[in-house]
Amino acid sequence: MTDRSAPRTPSHRPLGRRSFLAATGLAAAGAAWAASGAGRALAAADPAPAAASGLAVPIDTVAHTRTWMAWPDSTDVWGPKLPDVQANIALIARTVAQYEPVTLCANPAGAPAARSTCGPSVTVLDTIPVDDCWMRDTGPVFRTDGAGGLDAIGTNFNGWGNRQPHGRDALVAERIAAHLGVPFTAAGFVGEGGAVETDGNGTLMATRSSLINTRRNPDLTQAQIASALCDAYGAHQVIWFDGVAGRDITDDHVDATSRFPATAAGLVQMPLATDTDAWSQDARRQYRILSTSTDAHGTPFAVTRLQGPDYKLIRSTDPKFVAAYANYYVCNGAVISAQFGDARADAAAKATLQRLFPDRVVEQLDIDGLGAGGGGIHCVTQQQPRP
């Protein structure tokens, strides 16, 4: 365990959303992955066929019908951190509900507390049980066809490679689709929604560490996974980043570092110039790759650098803390982001997001409970776009 008194750089991020490495020996697995050559920087994009249905996952900035979230109630998962995490979930839900409807899935036993804590602006649904709060990963990924059609795909959630109990979470995507009465299809790969970022115009971003992974897709090659991603998302191209394998439960989801704020536009959260850990090095590689890539239509990306905070100046003293401004959530009329207590970096991040989203209100929330659990605001939300 990292010494709490040591300077906290991104190298002191969680060894998992639940510190799983020490218990499972996955550090060795990560080292083997790197030694195999899978971590080498390669070409930015692999073409793959788009879905033939005309349905595609739109960019986050389209108008939403609602936001889906989940209420955590397991002390087995969260231990003494559970009250703080529940307070964070409620804060996010109430904030998003100022801009669009929010439906929160809760277990029957946890629903009364969810309703009480979230208040009347949030709809609590107690008929779709959950194991945890990470709706980005467990929920359905919605697709539209531009002509009023809506369906949902599931990414075959398996508990981040069977690292956490997920019997209920594995069914959340299909159950939400059934609740809405929309067609549901299981994707041709195993992964999580936070592992894939789409520009809604044919281009995806993902990390090899998360998807080209024996815990998720042991029998699929990179080309096969790229094809399955594009079929599911209605895209034509995947921009691959190496990522960081075996160091957190997600194997480094792309949505903590790189995002598509608009078509032909990218954003990468950058480390301090003095940071040399694996996370920082990979963030710099992501910036270089995205800055020299073109989208599925041959247009170069305009890439914004979003400066991360100084881990020595943030509020949290948790050595597992993740401070990802890039893990923001776009809803109708607003961008919901985090602030971490580094006043200068918080203000700069808000200004950057406001510049990127000039027609939306930028809300910054203290979600330190979730940060200590290895995630953020985008991780616990899933948008349902208007057809």
What is the gyration radius calculated from CA atoms? 19 Å
Broad CATH class: Alpha Beta
What is the percentage of strand-forming residues? 15-25%
Q: Count the domains.
A: 1
For the largest beta sheet, what order do the strands appear in spatially? 1-10-9-8
The end-to-end distance, rounded to whole angstroms, is 47 Å
Structural class by sheet pairing and helices: alpha/beta
Helix content: 25-40%
Ranges where pLDDT stays below 50 over 5 or more residues in a row are 1-51
Q: What characteristic shape results from the CA principal axes? A: globular
The major beta sheet can be summarized as: 4 strands, mixed
Q: Tally the helices: what do you get?
A: 13
Name given to the CATH homologous superfamily: L-arginine/glycine Amidinotransferase, Chain A
Q: How many strands in all?
A: 17
Based on the structure given, which CATH architecture is correct?
5-stranded Propeller
Order of helices and strands: HHEEHHEHEHEEHHEEEHHEEEHEEEHEHE
- In quaternary terms, these chains amount to single chain
In CATH, the topology is named L-arginine/glycine Amidinotransferase, Chain A
